[in-house]
UniProtKB/TrEMBL annotation:
It comes from Lasiosphaeris hirsuta. InterPro entries: MFS, MFS_dom, MFS_trans_sf. It holds the Pfam family MFS_1. Residues 72-559 form the Major facilitator superfamily (MFS) profile domain. GO terms for molecular function: kinase activity; transmembrane transporter activity. GO terms for cellular component: plasma membrane. PROSITE patterns: MFS. Gene3D superfamilies: MFS general substrate transporter like domains. Its main location: membrane. This is Serine/threonine kinase 16. It is a multi-pass membrane protein.
């Protein structure tokens, strides 16, 4: 293998590896592939072979019109933005809210910790559930919960009720923090995914940073209750949009043909079928022109008609995993021991990570309201303008850049795509994160002009953009059939965030910003450097998990 990636000879086709571009200098093992029968991209991607290969069904999300895919992504992405704002939007008004509820700022910060904990625990329920019954019912239930808790939060008058609303909201927030990546994997091909993951990231992270920016003015003018009121209005509108415009994207793509094809049948002439394995996830069967007019369902045997609009509004569309429920719910724990997934957990939990970004949102409400900055509530909210702008810039760059790197390296690799081609993006994330974390601690400690810590705050957020695009792109491509469970494992970082937000203000007061953020920055640097061994050994690791018989039986959705 080129580029320093170690090859694996123990498995003919390693999970995640795919033949993706038309080239004359194919490796010998791929030289006999009937490329003219493969479905390709269009326009500037006309030489890109679609991975996964779509079926011929009009109900396959891969075959949906582009406008329909983008509309669904826009709605669930916008929902993720409001969900992202729901947690940190109150940080500019921490002091006022604590006074109103007759509690200390430290106790109020702990309610945020409980919210984060329930997001993490909620993922262990909602994502495996989406694996079994589909994405749509989970999205709908989550949106109903967010609408109810927003109304509840606006009416709260005492702390216990406040805490109850935050705990329930955590369960509702969970799907929009993680399940969206699975929806992207349902609808988009490999060469399109990083850009769409970046779009989802753009919505989520601008919600996190922009929510506090807008909420600062709302709290100062109308009080903190109206932040919940605005959220209730938005969640109500989005609930209607999800009901009428977001159909089920999960799809059983087991086979394009109704019956298995033997080796003898493959060699026959007219009416033959050419079969090629594009990876563990994708058994692609190519039907000759004579058979292409017939469409089959994922179970095989009966022609599949295009669903009507009313049929697409069904909440429940069947079961998508036939494995016992306990297995599906236990898989996130097993997947956490997959090196690639554990790496994603470390990056997302201890690297640039939302964990540290949440720490910023907690401490900003304390650092900037006192001397030497003495910011007002609205000015504290304006701190989020820096990550808001830099997040947008990062998203505009990270997704297209990651897709371009993948296609470029695939062409250099004789048309063979490896998920490790997603990893070079971590170089940018590492540079931005080092400057952001160490810079924030130093500028706050030495009380520089407010521009210093505000800019470093933005750079740390920007590093999260590149890191998350890299992490989720790599996991989606490596373990496509188990995205739901893998993302639960990665987002177990919420349990770490819960513990950290519980004591971070006391830690900051005791040791100072320089020591606190130097420790966080050092942890960030260490875990991002783990990308190097993953680059080298990633393919061998994917081969090992793909060859392990016990893992394959446990992860099988057919029984």
């Amino acid at each position: 293998m080129p580029f320093g990636i170690l090859d694996c000879k123990k498995m003919e086709v390693v999970p995640g590896t795919a033949f993706m571009t038309d080239q004359d200098d194919l490796p010998p093992e791929l030289a006999d592939i009937p490329r003219e029968r493969l479905k390709h991209g269009t326009g500037r991607f006309k030489d890109v072979i679609l991975v996964p290969q779509p079926s011929d069904s009009p109900n396959d999300p891969l075959n949906w019109p582009q406008w329909k895919k983008e509309l669904i992504l826009f709605i669930v992405g916008l929902s993720a933005a409001v969900v992202g704002a729901y947690g940190p939007m109150l940080s500019p008004g921490f002091v006022e809210i604590a006074d109103n509820l007759h509690i200390t700022v430290e106790v109020l910060a702990q309610s945020t910790a409980w919210l984060i904990l329930c997001i993490g625990l909620g993922l262990f329920l909602t994502n495996p559930l989406a694996k079994i019954i589909g994405r749509r019912p989970v999205y709908l239930l989550a949106m109903v919960i967010m609408f109810v808790t927003s109304v509840w939060g606006a009416a709260v008058t005492e702390y216990n009720s406040w805490l109850g609303s935050r705990i329930l909201a955590g369960v509702g927030m969970a799907p929009y923090e993680v399940l969206v990546q699975c929806t992207i994997g349902d609808m988009y091909f490999v060469h399109e995914r990083a850009t769409r993951i970046a779009v989802w990231n753009l919505f989520l992270l601008t919600g996190i940073s922009g929510g506090a920016l807008i909420a600062g003015y709302i709290i100062e003018r109308d009080g903190y209750r109206w932040t919940f009121g605005v959220c209730a209005i938005l969640f109500g509108i989005l609930l209607i949009a999800v009901i009428f415009l977001v159909p089920e994207t999960a799809y059983r793509r087991d086979s394009v043909l109704p019956v298995p094809v033997s080796d003898q049948e493959e060699r026959e002439g007219e009416g033959s079928v050419h079969k090629m394995k594009l990876g563990h996830d994708h058994d692609v069967q190519h039907v000759n022109e004579k058979e292409m007019h017939t469409t089959y369902d994922g179970e095989g045997g009966t022609a599949e008609k295009k669903h009507t609009y009313l049929q697409s509004l069904r909440v429940f569309t069947g079961r998508y995993s036939y494995a016992p429920g306990w297995k599906v719910f236990a898989r996130p724990v097993i997947l956490l021991f997959y090196p690639a997934v554990f790496w994603g957990f470390l990056i997302y939990a201890k690297g640039t990570t939302l964990t540290w970004i949440v720490v910023f949102s907690v401490v900003n409400g304390v650092i900037f309201v006192g001397p030497p900055y003495n910011f007002s509530i609205s000015q504290t909210g304006l701190i989020s303008l820096s990550p808001f702008v830099l997040t947008i810039i990062g998203e505009l760059i990270s997704g297209p850049l990651n897709d371009w790197i993948c296609i470029h390296l695939t062409r250099k690799n004789k048309g063979v795509y490896e998920p490790e081609f997603r990893l070079p993006l971590m170089i940018v994330a590492t540079i931005l994160g080092v400057v952001g974390f160490f810079g924030f601690g130093a500028t706050v400690q030495y009380q520089t002009h407010w521009l210093g810590p505000v800019l470093c705050f933005g750079l740390a957020n920007m590093s999260l953009v590149f890191a998350s695009t890299c992490v989720f792109g790599y996991v989606v491509d490596s373990y496509r059939e188990h995205n739901e469970e893998a993302f639960v494992a990665i987002n177990a970082r919420n349990l770490l965030t819960f513990g950290l937000t519980y004591f971070v203000n006391d830690w900051l007061a005791e040791q100072g910003a320089l020591i606190v953020f130097s420790i966080l920055g050092s942890l960030f640097l260490f875990v991002t450097l783990l990308t190097i061994p993953l680059w080298i050994f990633g393919k061998k690791i994917r081969s090992f998990t793909g060859r392990n018989e016990w893992l394959q039986r446990f992860m099988n959705d057919k029984a």
